[in-house]
Amino acid sequence: MKSDPFDYGIWLLRYGPKSFQGMKKALIKKGYEEDAVLEAVDKMVELGYLNDRTYSENLIRKRKANNVKGKLWLTRALKEEGIPLPEDFEDLYTDEKEREIILNLLMKWSEGKELSDKERQKFYGRLLRRGFKSENIFHSFDLCRVHGETEEGDFSD
After folding, report:
1. Angle, vertex CA 22, rays to CA 17 and CA 28, nearest 5
2. Are 29 and 21 a contacting pair, CB within 8 Å?
3. DSSP-based three-state secondary structure for 153
4. 78-105 pLDDT, tens digit each
5. What are the strands, taking DSSP E only, across the chain?
6. Distance separating alpha carbons of residues 28 and 40, to the nearest angstrom
7. Max Cα separation, the chain?
8. Could you say which DSSP state residue 2 is in?
9. DSSP tag of 4
């Protein structure tokens, strides 16, 4: 006997948070009727189990810290989930913060060594695929002087 969509939705939340649209898709994919799904998802929202705002803020924080992604990747991921960008998205993930993350990744990947043009292109592509803005990547390349280390052998100005 099939459980009702609300119970199955609560069970799904044990494995991680979901957006309104993400839960709706999962329940429909499981074979529940759309009317029953909408009723169940609305009840989850009403009870506080689903909150797109909290979901998007957590996704932004998580992707800034772990398995690092850029602003463009996050924007696309939220759009695919059917979640509008939080009004304070620019405050949650500033260009300055994105540049700082890029600098940290460049230092980690380069292991403090001077990079060839080929390596710079490789890292540029890698950062673009992770959804970082092109202008922030170039800014970070300039800041850390990836194409030529400072005299002290570090990446500081």
Report:
1. 125
2. no
3. coil
4. 888 888 888 888 888 889 999 999 988 9
5. none
6. 11
7. 71
8. P
9. P
Which amino acid type is present at position 13? Answer: L
Are 36 and 5 in contact, with CB atoms under 8 Å apart?
Answer: yes
Q: What is the mean pLDDT of residues 55-77?
A: 85
Q: Taking CA 33 as the corner, what is the angle to CA 27 and CA 38, rounded to the nearest 5 degrees?
A: 65
Q: Is 50 a residue whose pLDDT tops 80? A: yes
- What is residue 65's predicted lDDT score, i.e. its pLDDT? 77
Token pair listed for 98: 């994105």
37, amino acid identity = V
Phi/psi for 84 (5° steps) reads -70, 150
Rounded Cα distance between 26 and 12, Å, is 9
Q: Which of 150, 147, 153, 99 is nearest to 120 (CA)?
A: 147
CA distance 131 to 105: 13
Q: Any idea which of 60-69, 77-86, 108-117, 146-155 has the lowest mean pLDDT?
A: 146-155
What pLDDT is attached to residue 150?
A: 38
Angle, helix 95-110 to helix 134-144, in steps of 10 degrees: 60
Mean pLDDT of 25-54: 94
What pLDDT shows up at residue 2?
63
For 70, other C-beta atoms within 10 Å of its C-beta total 22
